[in-house]
Amino acid sequence: MLKSNKLVFFNTSSYYLINFSDYFLSLIILPFLARTITVDGIGILGIANTLGIVCLLLMEYGFSLSATRDIASKNSNTNINLVASRVLLIRSMLIIPCVLICLLSFFFLPIFSKYPLVVIFTFLTSLLNGFTPVWYFQGIQKVFPFAMLKISTRVVFLIPIFLFVRTYNDAWLVLFFQSISSFIVCSVSLFWLFKNIKFEIISLEEIKNSLKDGWHAFSLTIVPPICLMLSFYWLSTKFSLESIGLINTAERIFRASISIFGPIGQAIYPFIISQLSKDRLLAVRQIKKAFWLYLILSTLAMIAIIFFAKPFITWYLGNSFFESAKLLQVFAISLPVIQVSYILGRQWMLSVKLDKIVNTGVITSNLILLISLFYFHDIYHIYSLPFSILLSETALLIFNFIYLTYNRLGFWNIEPKGLK
User: Fold this and answer.
1) Helix, strand, or coil here: 361?
2) DSSP secondary structure of 233-288
3) Sign of torsion over alpha carbons 10, 132, 85, 96
4) Where does residue 43 rank: exposed (0-12), middle (13-18), buried (19+ CB within 10 A)?
5) Mean pLDDT of 170-180
6) Of 61, 83, 216, 279, which is least packed with CB atoms within 10 Å of its CB?
């Protein structure tokens, strides 16, 4: 028990390092970018970021969930070799649709045709991040070396951003230096991977089965960022680039606050999966602890953001971003809803293999997001996005709770010995 707790704690710390490199380093340079590339430049990077996330998650094809689960449950090197080989081969195949998405962005979003380098380096960064085998290190629950590699590389390549980015037209340089750091992280982590696994030949039938089996995990991860990308694309046709920059700034800080909780879930997820077949009572206890921890911390975070958003944004970014503070306050209301829903869905329901049900809930809630955004944009203007996110996430939470309660599958009403 003590050894298990130490493992979860150590991996949680490693995930915090990864999240720091992914989210908080970008917030560290945000004041600098606000004063150099201005609100409009941040708007361009924000739209490009949604494109990059979609390309990345398309390449991942849900393997950040399914491959982690498969490796965590395997007990032989041969099986792990097969999982790793299958993931890398399928990701190589998924480069083609990523290229098509980027090309379509040039045609359907005029702003990208003015800044082609933004799209090119967004694609390259997504490609390299897609091939980075973080799922392998998560599955074997040895994340710390990867975390140190990633954060050190990201920190080093912040320096040239401060040195060379000076005006609005230099926005592409931010993505250029990020792509270089991604190349180093990808290359070194793949080297580590191939020191421990042997590449296996995968048949076409196995690829088809993997794509079929991974569909629910894939759609679960790809649907939310696609809907967010479409939301930003559509809002960019309705509002000015400055308004998009204000929304993106608030949304970026909001996502960073969500990411604070991510490492706990990333560490607990493979632990719960491995324990469900060994010590079911321990797995149920762990998810209950995570539930209350997420609920309490997310509620406190919401209160803190609502009270301190305005003075913080004014000090951090300047008066020109004051509207972002009010947007952030509205975003923050969703925080407890999102975190509780995350525990019920992605932590618990996926662990007990209710992938199809989770997928149904996520797709439905994101359709609600798009419909409400289309309906409310004339009423709430730039506040329509945080309001629509609150509405859709509340619908998802209600769906998960009702399904688990009705079928008596919730961790609050099921005996550990009844788990399968």
Assistant:
1) helix
2) HHHHHHS-HHHHHHHHHHHHHHHHHHHTTHHHHHHHHHHHHHHHTT-HHHHHHHHH
3) positive
4) buried
5) 91
6) 279
